[in-house]
Amino acid sequence: MKEFPVSKTYRLIEPGPVVLVTTLNEGRPNIMTMGFHMMVQHPSLIGAVIGPWDYSYEALSMTGECVIAIPTVDLAAKMVDIGNCSGREVNKFKEFGLTAVPGKKVKAPLIRECLANIECKVVDTSLVDRYSLFILEAVKAWTDPNRKERRTLHHNGDGTLTVDGRVLNFQEKMVLWKQFQG
Amino acid sequence: MKEFPVSKTYRLIEPGPVVLVTTLNEGRPNIMTMGFHMMVQHPSLIGAVIGPWDYSYEALSMTGECVIAIPTVDLAAKMVDIGNCSGREVNKFKEFGLTAVPGKKVKAPLIRECLANIECKVVDTSLVDRYSLFILEAVKAWTDPNRKERRTLHHNGDGTLTVDGRVLNFQEKMVLWKQFQG
Description:
2 copies of one chain form a homodimer.
Chain A: E1 2-4, H1 10-13, E2 19-25, E3 28-34, E4 37-41, E5 45-49, H2 56-63, E6 65-70, H3 76-82, H4 92-95, E7 100-101, E8 110-111, E9 116-127, H5 128-131, E10 133-143, E11 153-155, E12 160-169
Antiparallel strand pairs in A: 1-10, 2-3, 2-6, 4-5, 5-10, 6-9, 7-8, 9-10, 11-12
């Protein structure tokens, strides 16, 4: 995996892919599937809904750290299965044959098989009680430039996933976005 | 347009499409393009980043109402142009040939040409000062069931848009989502 500019995290999050979230709590690594998330602020604040019904909630609350990993279409079935069992009962890295790679800034592991990994720290918990909404700051990011399959997935909220299709280029017309383009 | 169950708003928002947001302030209708948004809570709380740099910010702050409209690929160029000019100078409905349709629960207009429209009220402004993050509640929703083009767009944060591709069905495996399936 190659380092990805953390200031460009929005390029990974804004398209709205379903993501995986890893935590490490008292030596126990875990993974969950997440669909309720957004970019909140440039360059690198992310909003993420992780609730007490998620086993990862305790780990995230205790450690203040997680990794957001972005899977592609080849991982669709695993991603669905990861979201339908609990780290209370299952060691998900082992169960699903995924490789935990140490991060640089957080203790939560990266997932080797994913297209991208974003190391995050919790920076604001003021809406956690009301909405289970954590504000995370991306502190380091990684991508796999050699990966051929790069199509991410979008959950339609009904058990179906839309796969990325073709890409339209409007870079010449999107003048207001230019300020964020490196 | 046909009414869409407001309790299923997450099916429109969770996939992460770029959306249009309309407001009506002192008789002036406006439209902006938005990419920083998320589902926050079932059935129908939405987080949306609209900042003082957006002309819509004042309208949303004053009226507490907006409509989130979801465009499809046929509207891609218009959506980009809408995001690159300001309602301060332009009447966007007129300029872009879009049809404003009255909503039922809010004064902000629906956009006839969009796949779906969600009428929203602001319910929490506690993170507006810090992050320009409004918590909206969907109070009424509409879709156009006769529309053939249904592929939405995802902004990659760099002036390119990914169009929806094929759909994978995991409804049998996604047991934890079943509780939200009507």
